[in-house]
Amino acid sequence: MGKLVFFTLKKNFSNIFPTLLFAGILVVFRPAGARAFEWPEIKITPIGSVSETYNDNITYSNDKKMEDLITEISPGIKAAYETETLFWTVNGIITQQVFAKNRDFNDTSEALDIDFYRERSLFDRFSMSNHFIHSYEMGAIETSLGRPSGRYGYYSNTFEFKYERDLAQELTMNLLYDNESNRFSGSELADSTGNRFSAEVFYQLNPATTLIASYQFLNRNFDPGGILSDNLISVGVRRKITERLTAEARTGVDYIQSYDDEEYIEPRLTVSLAQEIDEKNKAAIHFSKLYDSTPYSEDLFNSWQAGASWERELSERTSCTASGFYGNGKYAASGAKETILGGSLSSIYALNKNIKVNLGYGYSQVKSNEDVREYTQNKVSAGMKIEF
């Protein structure tokens, strides 16, 4: 693997050099006093990043596997406004991908995140967010379970509204609504839309224990296609085991009326554990057992998955993160099965207040009873992020 990466880097140095030169110019000619443009109570911050990634399977396929070296240039901007009771942020970024060998794969991706929070009084508050992404990459391995493999473009937009109210000193209620819209291009996937309404109640039994009860209704439809409705009732508990260790568990029942008008009653379970080992180390694990709909197929996906992560601050300027994931699932109607195994390692070093460099490695493997869904992939990346 190491020799293969070295050979690819050496072979494509002429493609890497312009990116390294661009990064060097940004560093050398960055104004000494560069900082965010601050208007009264509004902060505008230019951001940008450059990176090189070696990917040994850009097609997410075993029978049509291709490797390449990918240059990414990502200019963007951040805007923020904050008072004691209100804040909002807007983050926008455009990413240009340039493939060294497979030029037909060159593409442009966009992402826009908007978040808003307002405290109406001492007892109630609300927040809104909208997250848009247009991309050709699968993203984090945790989101790949049940997702058809292959390279294709997609547009995803998620809007969420949340209202919180303290009914009493120990009792809090949350009302939530979110809308998810997915559009696919270059694939046979149908477009889908999901609307979710939910209500949660949190009761603090004592300083260490909080009881949770919730109801959720989901409506998902495909175009072209049918409509699914899902009612979920669940209860749970959040427990602060020690000052640094917190656990949460929820269990419930899904009442699902599927696209074919079949009715299902299925259990659901989620468990998470988070610990601040010390001031420089954090760890977390999670497990879930779900019988759920997906935005990719008019089908129900019966799955379980587990993951773990660890963050360590090596020094004042250096930090690293390691994560692992394992999941298994089966589609109820089609019978398609898959198992995903993956992990990543990354390290960040702050050259100064405005510039950070990073190194990363990621591995993912998908096994399936359908050959077209199987693939393995290795990624090695190095980059620089600049925030004035």
What are its keywords?
388 residues; mainly beta; 66% strand; disordered N terminus
Assembly level = single chain
Distance separating the two termini: 37 Å
What coarse outline follows from CA principal-axis ratios? globular
Unreliable residue runs? 1-34
Largest beta-sheet details: 18 strands, antiparallel, barrel
What is the averaged pLDDT score?
Answer: 88
In short:
With 388 residues, the chain is mainly beta.
Note the topology.
Blueprint (H helix, E strand, L loop, with lengths): L1 H10 L1 H16 L8 E3 L2 E14 L12 E15 L3 E14 L7 E13 L4 E12 L17 E14 L4 E15 L5 E16 L2 E15 L3 E14 L4 E13 L5 E16 L2 E13 L6 E14 L4 E14 L5 E14 L4 E14 L6 E13 L1
Antiparallel strand pairs: 1-2, 2-3, 2-19, 3-4, 4-5, 5-6, 6-7, 7-8, 8-9, 9-10, 10-11, 11-12, 12-13, 13-14, 14-15, 15-16, 16-17, 17-18, 18-19
Describe the 3D structure.
There is one protein chain. The protein is mainly beta and 388 residues long. 7% of the residues lie in helices and 66% in strands. The protein is built from 2 helices and 19 strands. The chain has an 18-stranded antiparallel beta barrel. A hairpin with a 2-residue loop joins strand 1 and strand 2 (42-55). It is globular, with a radius of gyration of 23 Å. Mean pLDDT is 88; it is low at 1-34.
